[in-house]
Amino acid sequence: MRRVKPATRLVRPEGPGASPPLDRSTTYAYGEPRPAYYQRHAHPVGEQAERLLGELDGGHALLFPSGAAATTALVLSLLRPGATIALAAGAYYGTGETFRELERWGLRYVEFDQTTAPPAEADLVWVEAPSNPFLTFPDLQAAAAHAAPLVVDATASTPILLRPLEHGADFVLHSATKFLAGHSDVLLGAVVCADDEAADRLRRLRTRTGIVAAPDPAWLLLRGLRTLELRVRHQSASALELARRLAGHPRVERVRYPGLDDPLAARWMDRDFGGLLSFDVAGDARAVEEATTIITNATSLGGVESLLESRARWEGDRVPPNLLRLSVGLEDVEDLWGDLASALERA
Predict the structure, then answer these.
(1) Is the pTM of this model over 0.85?
(2) pLDDT tens string 233-243
């Protein structure tokens, strides 16, 4: 096993231009010094994006058409029928839905409290740092000590705030649609592998199954990576301020945010805690989300614009009916607070 050495966080495009070129070619002439000749195998824009993301996370990055595609490909490359996945309870509901679809192929999954050690019978451990939408943080030391491979979904933290491979993870998963691309105009996923053998196995499965990312979203990911740290730091600062103010608001029952006294998050995250939080309102969550004027009432997260939604519309009884998830964008924090405070009072 060869682990990639962590690299600098400076993200610069390759080539003479200030912006990297977009090459949409599906095939290339034989004889050229290229690692691949057909887009299903590799393409220049994707290769550059994978190199840069790999440097940020300290591993071998591979792109997929979505986060769900990355999840599916990774599980299929690692497990056989009869295997058990230990999934963090309260993690992104779509991950559990994907695993449920794979049960017909003989896989099974069990949920566990990720603030404690994973169950002994697991063949793959899957945690989320932090979880979406409950914002719990895993005990990475306990998870890494398990005999099974460890996957950390770091979509909400990004490699700016957390580099799981440095803490014993074998794989990092990102829905690159979210903070990595950062502009709500890209559907993309990524897996970053700690060693080259695992990356080669996953790359072979990607090529043979055609679960590949096209040049256009890869090019937009390059754009997003160039501003990633600036965006994440700003969003984190605003999210912490909003979380503190929401915690003191009389119409808010509970605030979930890793920056509010979470010892596990404080142990591993890099001084900031991300732009995602959730809170339970005293009353009708739908009325609050529909009363904002600056914050958009929509799903997803990680973009430059702030988004607010009631998660019960998607997750049903799994979440409290009054839980609102807030993805903090780049707007002025005072404008955001004014919008939230006004919506809470009017609802």
Answers:
(1) yes
(2) 999 999 999 99
